[in-house]
Amino acid sequence: MEKVSTICPYCGCGCGLYLHVENGLITGVSPSAHHPVNHGSLCVKGWNCHEFVQHPDRLKYPLVRKDGILQKSSWEDALDLIASRLSGTKEKYGPDAIGILSSAKCTNEENFVMMKFARAVIGTNNIDHCARL
Amino acid sequence: MAGLASAFGSGAMTNSISEIADARVIFVVGSNTTEQHPMIAMHMLEAVDRGATLIVADPRKTQIAAFAHTHLRQRSGTDVALLNGIMNVIIGEGLVDINFVRRRTENFDEFEKVVKRCTPEVAEKITGVPASDIQRVARIYATEKRSMLFYSMGITQHVTGVDNVRSCANLVMLTAHIGQPMTGLNPLRGQNNVQGACDMGALPDVYSGYQKVADARARKKFESAWRRKLPSARGMTMIDMFDSAREGRLKAMYIVGENPVMSDPDTSHVVEAIRKLDFLVVQDIFMSETAELADVILPAVTFAEKDGTFTNTERRVQKVRKAVRPMYGAMPDWKIIAELSKKMGYDMGYRAAHEIMEEAALLTPVYGGILHHRLDDFGLQWPCPDADHPGTPFMHRKKFAKGLGTFNPIEFTPPDETTDMTYPFILTTGRLYFRYHTATMCRRTATLEREEPECFVEINPKDAGRIGVRSGNSVKAVSRRGEIVVKALVTDRTPEGIVFIPFHFREAAVNLITSPAVDPVAKIPEFKVCAINLVPVIPKPGERPKNRYNRKEDLKILNELYEEPEVPS
Ligand code: SF4
To answer: What is the tens place of the pLDDT at every residue in B244-270?
Structure first.
């Protein structure tokens, strides 16, 4: 079994924990003993924070709406479609007709990339996240 | 965090979690810490064990309130009056730290004029909290040196949310409980990386590190780093975006990892706005109500399948590490955006997450020394300006981020929606311990799902008697905007005249009936105050209530859930 040190994804406490990995699957969680926030404990959310990772309901491939129905698509096609639709919207209505909502569940790096995408690639400051909720 | 930034020039928890256990006074305003931030509550209770005084201000008898030495049950939406009352006592009894106020702050005189009017007796009339309690709390908080103040969504989700935060800032400056260990003003932020999302500039008016888009020098720096002309006008907030979409001006949206259809205060408004869009992309790990309306859905990965960093509520930037390969065909969000951006003619060229952080560090003064290889132990707390800096456990030591701290004179304004004959109850909403936001993650976690089976409304026994419901009965909650049917849970945790519904349940989306009024500065939707009526739902003759035993069982579980305290071991 391998133990990977990481951070609980559930609340702003940011407790340190280990994910137990066996044969490419996560099998359990244990708290980080010396972490300044949690000192070797976790709350019930932290103890169960791996369960949703391997859930069969996970989205498994891109879906694209065709004739009103969401259909399986390849990454290539889905991204091409998004690129052309966003570029089209930008040309026709200007960059400020596009809005981006980033996420407080994503990493810092992802939020940085998202804001760079909105500002440098689309050319709008219409970027926000759901922290207000 | 507009309120805090206007007082101090920075909007984050000023002190650290590890200081809590050594505090002497812990004053918690509008945060049900044991449920929302269990491990922070653990430190608070440890402080209590060591003799600290715990003061909780919350209309509801929350779990943390059960541990409090003094529980102030102010009426919903009257926090400003309560805080002004406390500050009135502090000024009146000469407990102000005059030295600090003179050296480090400005605008005290204006502020004093407003607070002078709010005597404890006036505050008692507005808040319902006895004047003697207000005086006692003021004395305890002001005279003890190591006093920490905490607040969370309970106070920011009001029309007066920014005012509430500014009032708290006034209080800590008045008593100089800032810039020292075991003091400070400490917002407890909900989702795991709200702090990081703000720090990284996922906001309409600032780049990473709160550098204003309107500031020509900051813009120039980003323009030369990114080799693109950047817009200077502030963008739209989430709420503006949905308004604009509804009016047909916003045409396309790209939503990552969020489910605004469920989490926005006015659900039907959001659905209408989204339907008007020409094009919607949703990127998430599970199907959601918002994704069901999308034109393209992209599968992203969870925290266990990618590298990166999260910033917790005490500004600690910590490493998240990839434990397993991406499941199924999913990709990390940053990779998806980078690929898309390449297709749109802009190659970001990142090969790994740490390269993104290197760029962010270069462009963001407070993250200047935050580099992945330095975060291996327990991360670093920003501000951390360079690669040798050890990080900052508590802020505003010698001076505030903006120089002088500003007192903001804040008058009490009554909540936006008031009760009347037709809508006699105040509805407050909030989250429960076992649930995380709109539950897309939790509902896939069997252990958590089991704990809390059904949506309910908490109602005081006296109110329940008056309208004739008992625990387990169905009631219809009707507001000026809509209605939902939920189970009644009769309890004195909720004071008379106030009812409480948690906002995690798809079946009874409480947001269908909440108020769309928005704080004019921070644009935080008002969740906490909304006038409603409750009507018992009478089963049709002959119709037997289903699953009677289960229902009892459910209520038992709900009750235990509150009673079982998270005591530090
Ligand atoms: S273990 Fe509990 S307290 Fe710690 S971060 Fe996770 S949810 Fe928050």
So the answer is: 999 999 999 999 988 888 766 667 778
Task: Give the CATH number of domain A2-47; options: 3.30.1050.10, 1.10.10.10, 3.40.50.300, 2.20.25.90.
Answer: 2.20.25.90
Q: Distance between CA B35 and CA B431 in Å, rounded?
A: 8
User: For residue A14, which of B361, B191, B149, B32 has the smallest C-alpha distance?
Assistant: B191
Among B256, B569, B108, residue whose Cα is nearest residue A102: B256
The letter for the amino acid at B2 is A
Find where tokens 């009750």 sit. Answer: B559
- For chain A, domain boundaries: 2-47, 59-93, 94-133
Q: Which residues contact B264 (CB under 8 A, 6 or more apart)?
A: A133, B238, B239, B242, B270, B511, B525
The string of pLDDT tens digits covering residues B559-569 is 444 433 333 33
Paired tokens of A120? 């440098």
| B408-to-B88, B100, B171, B546 alpha-carbon distances in Å | 14, 16, 11, 55
DSSP percent split of chain A into helix, strand, coil, nearest 5: 35, 25, 35
What part of B 269-298 touches A (C-beta under 8 Å)?
A: 278-279, 281, 284-287, 291, 294-298
- Closest alpha carbon to B533 in B465, B484, B461: B484
| B24 Cα distance to chain centroid | 25
For residue A13, which atom of ligand 1 is closest to its CA?
5
Cβ atoms of residues A34 and B216 within 8 Å: no
In this prediction the pTM is 0.80
Q: Residues with Cβ < 8 Å from B135, sequence gap 6 or more?
A: B89, B120
Closest by alpha carbon to B272, among B236, B238, B248? B248
pLDDT digits (tens, 9 = 90+) for B32-91: 888 788 889 889 999 999 988 999 998 888 888 888 898 988 877 788 889 999 999 998
**% chain B with pLDDT above 90:** 20
Which positions in chain B touch A37 (Cβ < 8 Å)?
A: 17-18, 39-40, 312, 314, 316
CA dist B486 and A116 (Å) reads 43
Number of other residues whose CB lies within 10 A of the CB of residue B409: 16
Structure tokens at B413: 């304004």
Residue ranges of E strands in B191-278: 252-256
Alpha helices, H only, B509-569: 548-563
Please work out whether the CB of residue A29 comes within 6 Å of at least one atom of ligand 1: no
d(CA B430, CA B249): 32
